[in-house]
Structures are given as C-alpha cells and as structure tokens.
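Example record used in the benchmark description.
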Amino acid sequence: MTDPTARPQDHKDQAAPEPADAAAAPGAEAVRDPLAEAQREAAEMKDKLLRTLAEMENLRRRTEREVSDARLYGISGFARDVLGVADNMQRAMQALEDELRGNESVKVLVEGVELTERELLKVLEKHGVKRFSPLGEKFDPNMHQAMYEVPDASAAPGTVAQVIQDGYKIGERVLRPAMVAVFKAPPKAAAASANDD
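Model output (structure tokens):
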C-alpha cells in the first residue's frame, strides 16, 4: 500500500530522472531549427524555379526553331512534285532542233515555254527553292548523285564532268540531288600503253 502521509512529490523523486538533453535520449527525434529548415526549403524552391525557367526558355527556342523550319521546309513535298514539271519544260526546250527554232510559228511557242519556265523557277525561288548545277565542282555525295564515271587523264578525278539533271535546295537542305557524271582517272594499264605509243 501507499503511505498516506507521503507527498505526491515523493513519488516523482522515486521515478528515473529525465535526461537534460532530449536529443541524447534514444528514439527521441532531434529538434530541428525552424530557420534552417525554412532556408533549406527556400533553396530547394529557388533551384526548382531556376530549372523550370531554363526549361521554359529551351522550349521557347525549340518551338521558334520548329516554327521557322515548318515555314521554310513545309512546302518540300509540293516543291518536289513541281520539280518534275520544271524538268519536263527544260527537256522540251533541249529537244527542239535549231532548224525548228528558226520557224516563226515555233519561235513563239518556244518563247512562251521559256517564259513559263523562268516564271516557274522565279516562284520556286520566292519560296526558298533554288536550282544548282555543279558542273566542274568537286563531287559531293551529300548534294550530288553520281550516275556514271568518265575516264579522263586531263581532268581532276572526282570532279563533275556533266550534269544530267540539275539539283535543287530548299534553304540549306538538299531537296533533290543533282544527277551527275564524274571524272575518274583512266585505268593504269591503259595509261601505261598510251605512254608507250
């Protein structure tokens, strides 16, 4: 039984004393400094904000570039289809013999076709499509399509010997490569026999 004369404080004295430092007690959570916690959260939020701003700026730049490319290259499919028309007009002009060009009635037709071809090329250029003819230039597989090789000791190997079909670019991209013939060095056996003669 308990002693009726004992005071309530006496029971407290008998209990184990509490440690002075709460953090030292096992299992007790460390007391956090609210100011340090708020500064850490503010730093995290600032970092997230800066990353989000950088992502938004990158997205804006990428979108501007995509819109610009869409404006410039959006007509590529249509332009490729129209190039066939331009090629046919050029072939028609090359197929006419000189004696037919002298005929007065044919002369008017020829002038009309030439005028139409020039107008077509002008419209294509207005929309960023430019024709190029690489005759005499160094062969570039990114811009030219080699159809055959021409052996010639007097010409530099790898140079465009003949343009079979003009190429077209839209902006800085190749819309259609130029079809070309390329000079190559003659075989060594043939060159040696030519030197012997």
